[in-house]
């Protein structure tokens, strides 16, 4: 999406990068090396559909190969263009460094509106795109590993994995060529929910620091906080679901393509999602009041705003009127560089995209490791862990049978303690740890340096410093 009178998405990311490097002491050559996108491949291919040959345009940008493979989603949207995939690839580089996943940054896109094609047509198109990328090693377990993004999901990833396997019949690691696959095709438990889950963990970590909460002018916990979510797709739906069901937050607004729904008492996220699945939008949904001009709800009062749809939605045309004191960027680039400045001046705290939506790439990393190790997480240790716990339970039960001690185990303790960790528990634990550790690294810079005003610049500083170290280690 391009916004009149504002820098493009890629320029916006560069402006943020420039603000950060101005505070660093990098050699100018290295600074530029980290800034630029290494390469972008454009492909145009034809597919015979409905009796005609249709030409499609796709991209795969590789921003930085300081670590390989490079990693980043593939987006299916009608307005995908080179500038956008390069901006997204740069964000991937910084994101991977910030959450310590050992990848460089990449991103891909195909100019297509997936809703215009039937499933078997989409499969043909996706396979052909995958073929074009794989034959140039732009899909490869050790060089370039895509994942889902806007307009793509498990289904498309399964087609890509299968296409790669057909072209590389003896590659034992073929499944590691793409992440976000269905569980039965080499995927990992918890990948679908991962980005939204990461948004939840990021907010939980933020709310562990009263000092940070106070900077946003808020207090207390996530319970009862009023949240507005834009985009009830993969990321927005999971974030809204977990925050409302597990943390007691109220989803007071949901903004979708056709308008918004509001309800001060809190919307039922599952019911709204089901309505959208059936009717294609939020209009007419009885869960809340419908507002035709959906984007106006970005300006409505709330405690936390979660833009989880697309880039550039908070820009110079509306930033001044945005009231949320805390914004967590679940989407990539939802706030332009200009709007970022306006919001900062107003005292709004922004939890930046390169941190906030890193849950997806984190669990993709776990999936890639699982594919390379050819074994499900938890398979070796789960029962051993349970056996150890059983020993302890038996001993506790023996002691509590002693009436003189007067001990009693709480009713569900045994069942809960007895369960060893399976794949989903391990994935969530690894994701939670990653989100906590990365937040702590950012906030140490945010609070530790007088010249760092905001979390975004803190995140960039942590990430760029790590990337610079890898380049230096390579002799650059
Ligand atoms: P998705 O396609 O599943 O969902 C996008 C949602 O936004 C849809 O419900 C769509 O109807 C809605 N939407 C589109 N245009 C809108 C508009 N103008 N106003 C309001 N709603 C609108 O996509 P997703 O995977 O949830 O990705 C959303 C954002 O999160 C993107 O910026 C993406 O880059 C980012 N992201 C996704 C992942 C992931 O794992 N899927 C990981 C990191 C970042």
TrEMBL record:
<dbReference type="GO" id="GO:0006538">
    <property type="term" value="P:L-glutamate catabolic process"/>
</dbReference>
<feature type="domain" description="Glutamate/phenylalanine/leucine/valine/L-tryptophan dehydrogenase C-terminal">
    <location>
        <begin position="188"/>
        <end position="475"/>
    </location>
</feature>
<dbReference type="Pfam" id="PF02812">
    <property type="entry name" value="ELFV_dehydrog_N"/>
</dbReference>
<feature type="binding site">
    <location>
        <position position="71"/>
    </location>
    <ligand>
        <name>substrate</name>
    </ligand>
</feature>
<dbReference type="Pfam" id="PF00208">
    <property type="entry name" value="ELFV_dehydrog"/>
</dbReference>
<dbReference type="InterPro" id="IPR006097">
    <property type="entry name" value="Glu/Leu/Phe/Val/Trp_DH_dimer"/>
</dbReference>
<feature type="site" description="Important for catalysis">
    <location>
        <position position="149"/>
    </location>
</feature>
<feature type="binding site">
    <location>
        <position position="95"/>
    </location>
    <ligand>
        <name>substrate</name>
    </ligand>
</feature>
<dbReference type="GO" id="GO:0000166">
    <property type="term" value="F:nucleotide binding"/>
</dbReference>
<feature type="binding site">
    <location>
        <position position="364"/>
    </location>
    <ligand>
        <name>substrate</name>
    </ligand>
</feature>
<comment type="similarity">
    <text>Belongs to the Glu/Leu/Phe/Val dehydrogenases family.</text>
</comment>
<dbReference type="InterPro" id="IPR006095">
    <property type="entry name" value="Glu/Leu/Phe/Val/Trp_DH"/>
</dbReference>
<dbReference type="InterPro" id="IPR036291">
    <property type="entry name" value="NAD(P)-bd_dom_sf"/>
</dbReference>
<feature type="binding site">
    <location>
        <position position="234"/>
    </location>
    <ligand>
        <name>NAD(+)</name>
    </ligand>
</feature>
<keyword id="KW-0547">Nucleotide-binding</keyword>
<dbReference type="GO" id="GO:0004352">
    <property type="term" value="F:glutamate dehydrogenase (NAD+) activity"/>
</dbReference>
<protein>
    <recommendedName>
        <fullName>Glutamate dehydrogenase</fullName>
    </recommendedName>
</protein>
<keyword id="KW-0520">NAD</keyword>
<feature type="binding site">
    <location>
        <position position="195"/>
    </location>
    <ligand>
        <name>NAD(+)</name>
    </ligand>
</feature>
<dbReference type="InterPro" id="IPR046346">
    <property type="entry name" value="Aminoacid_DH-like_N_sf"/>
</dbReference>
<dbReference type="InterPro" id="IPR006096">
    <property type="entry name" value="Glu/Leu/Phe/Val/Trp_DH_C"/>
</dbReference>
<keyword id="KW-0560">Oxidoreductase</keyword>
<dbReference type="InterPro" id="IPR033922">
    <property type="entry name" value="NAD_bind_Glu_DH"/>
</dbReference>
<feature type="active site" description="Proton donor">
    <location>
        <position position="107"/>
    </location>
</feature>
<dbReference type="InterPro" id="IPR014362">
    <property type="entry name" value="Glu_DH"/>
</dbReference>
